[in-house]
Amino acid sequence: MFEQEYKDTFSKVTASEETYRRVMHMAKKEKKHGGLRTVSKVLLAAVMISTLTVIASAAVRNWFVTYFSGEQKSPLSQGQMEFIEENVQDIGQKQTCNGYTVELKSVLTDGYNMFISLGITAPEDIYLDRTVKEGYDPAAPVLWLGKNSKFEIGNRSSSRTWKMSDDGDGKHNTHNIVYLMSTDNEAFTKGDTVKIHFEELYAEYTNEAYGRELEEKYGFPPKLGLITDEEAEKLYPVELLAEGVWDFEIRFEEINAPFMEMLDQPVDYVLEYETPDGKVTKTAKVLSVKLSAIGTICTYEAGEDASIGIGGNIFMKDGTKVSLAGNAVGSSWVGGSCGMFEVPIALEDVAYIQFPDGTKVFAK
Question: Where are the beta strands (DSSP E) in 98-173?
Answer without folding.
Answer: 100-109, 113-121, 142-145, 150-152, 158-165
